[in-house]
Amino acid sequence: MPENQKDSIQLNKTPLDALHRELGAKMVPFAGYDMPVQYPMGVLKEHLHTRTNAGLFDVSHMGQAFLKGDGAVDAFESLVPGDYQIMPVGKTRYTVLLNNKGCIMDDLMATRIDGGLYIVVNAACKDADFAHIKVKTAGKAELEILEDRALLAIQGPKAGEVVARLSPETADMTFMTFAEVTIAGIACFATRSGYSGEDGFEISVPANQATELAKKLLSEPEVEAIGLGARDSLRLEAGLCLYGHDIDTTTTPVEADLKWAINKRRREEKNFPGANIIMDQIENGTERLRVGIKPEGRAPAREGTEIQDNNGNTIGTITSGGFGPSVDGPVAMGYVKTDFSAEGTELKLIVRGKAIAARVVKMPFTPHRYRIKK
Amino acid sequence: MSTIKFTKDHEWVSVDGDVATVGITTYALEQLGDLVFVEVPDAGKSVSVGEEAAVVESVKAASEVYAPVSGEVVEGNQAIADDPAQVSGEAGSDGWFFKIKMSNTSELDGMMNDAEYDEYLGTLD
């Protein structure tokens, strides 16, 4: 690419940009940010390190905000199918922003905090999400976008131990809980959650202290810096959706097999966007469904791969696929016609013109190891 | 004694008589990252210069290995298909992809020698 063209693409930088370069990261554009896709260790080893030790991820490109005010919970509930009234302060829940057709505008984490909610959304959607939330909650709640905070994720079986060493008060936190804590002397918001299927935390930290915190975490012997490449293979093995690939504005949570995110009270009240469509789908089913797919052999079936039945009829498409380092083989997810969604159903994947045998499997591909209770 | 040549597509070509043994260079391997899958052509397949002859996949993406010369595939390297970690950037090593019986050895003329390839690498990035 010519130099002048390079300069014309203005990529945002996270507060950890200099640290990534110091660590020898390979940087790539992602959602308008210059992000580390891998470090010298490489995607495969970074992935395996996270599954056995602890990996540190810079996810500062994601959007963080408070939605505050007496009407915040009610106003937020008008945009999502999650029950937030039932949740105590300090509890986090995954949900989806829905449009009027019941399709998914983004998936996000929202935590009940004193006086409202703390929200974390996807980088690529954050401007649209925040604009939408602001307009739809106007007069009922106040959206405060947290531009001056970085977000770090530490994931892996040793993550809890490492964070507890630097912050004893986090030791008792369980999966999907939130607390304002001090980690290595720095005031942070810690959520015991993540995107790898492993135990760990997402840590929101003031931007000007992010590098200091990252360095302190990296100086612990169990911790290595992990890039977006391994983040993707980790979440795929964990069966977690990637927005813009596995879910988007053409899919509903029922089709995406995220029915569990439509909570009981909300189903009864039927007062979330697209509720008629979604309730009909819950009762009568959908034409297609997101499923886990295990290709036979070694060849990965990537996003966009056509799925056929045994008679050569097209029945769906792979939406995420690649090599699972912990599975030590190819793994994928995609949408198939509902008749073909039962576990064990034989499929054919068309990779470079050849049909590869595959099966519908239960996800996750690697067991979740969240810290469910003390 | 074989002659080693390099292509702009970052392939190494080890020439012995009318047989070219083709692999990918260390530079290519570094760009790809950890390899997880390799597909090599069957013996007897005829290929033209620039045609897709093999597939190499890293954790991140799939890439093609192009035939640097025209001819007939004599052998695909089953060892690297069985274990992609055996792929080697070292020209003339056991980590090759395929051997081609060349139909037109003049196709080698435009390729680079070791020093020229190093110089070419210096112009990248």
Task: Record the SSE blueprint.
The complex is a heterodimer of chains A (374) and B (125).
Chain A: H1 3-8, H2 17-22, E1 26-30, E2 33-38, H3 43-52, E3 54-58, E4 63-68, H4 72-77, E5 92-98, E6 104-113, E7 116-121, H5 126-137, E8 142-145, E9 149-155, H6 159-166, E10 178-183, E11 186-191, E12 200-206, H7 210-218, E13 223-225, H8 228-237, H9 264-269, H10 275-284, E14 288-295, E15 306-308, E16 314-324, E17 329-337, E18 346-351, E19 354-361
Parallel strand pairs in A: 3-13
Antiparallel strand pairs in A: 1-2, 3-9, 4-7, 4-8, 5-6, 6-7, 9-12, 10-11, 11-12, 14-17, 14-19, 15-16, 15-18, 16-17, 18-19
Helix pairs in contact in A: 3-8
Chain B: E1 3-6, E2 11-16, E3 19-24, H1 26-32, E4 35-39, E5 46-47, E6 52-58, E7 62-66, E8 71-76, H2 78-82, E9 98-102, H3 114-123
Antiparallel strand pairs in B: 1-2, 2-3, 3-9, 4-6, 5-8, 6-7, 8-9
Walkthrough of the structure:
The complex is a heterodimer of chains A (374) and B (125). With 374 residues, chain A is an alpha+beta fold. Chain A is 22% helix and 33% strand. Among the domains of chain A are: 3-62 and 148-237, 2-Layer Sandwich (Gyrase A, domain 2), CATH 3.30.1360; 287-361, Aminomethyltransferase beta-barrel domains (Elongation Factor Tu (Ef-tu), domain 3), CATH 2.40.30.110. Chain B has 125 residues and is of the alpha+beta class. Chain B has a single domain (3-123), classed as OB fold (Dihydrolipoamide Acetyltransferase, E2P) (Beta Barrel). Helix content of chain B is 18%, strand content 37%. Chain B is built from three helices and nine strands; from the N terminus they run E-E-E-H-E-E-E-E-E-H-E-H. The chains are: A alpha+beta (374), B alpha+beta (125). Chain A binds chain B through residues 37-38, 42-45, 47, 229-230, 233, 298-300, 302, 322-323, 325, 330, 352, and chain B through 33-34, 36-37, 39, 55, 57-62.
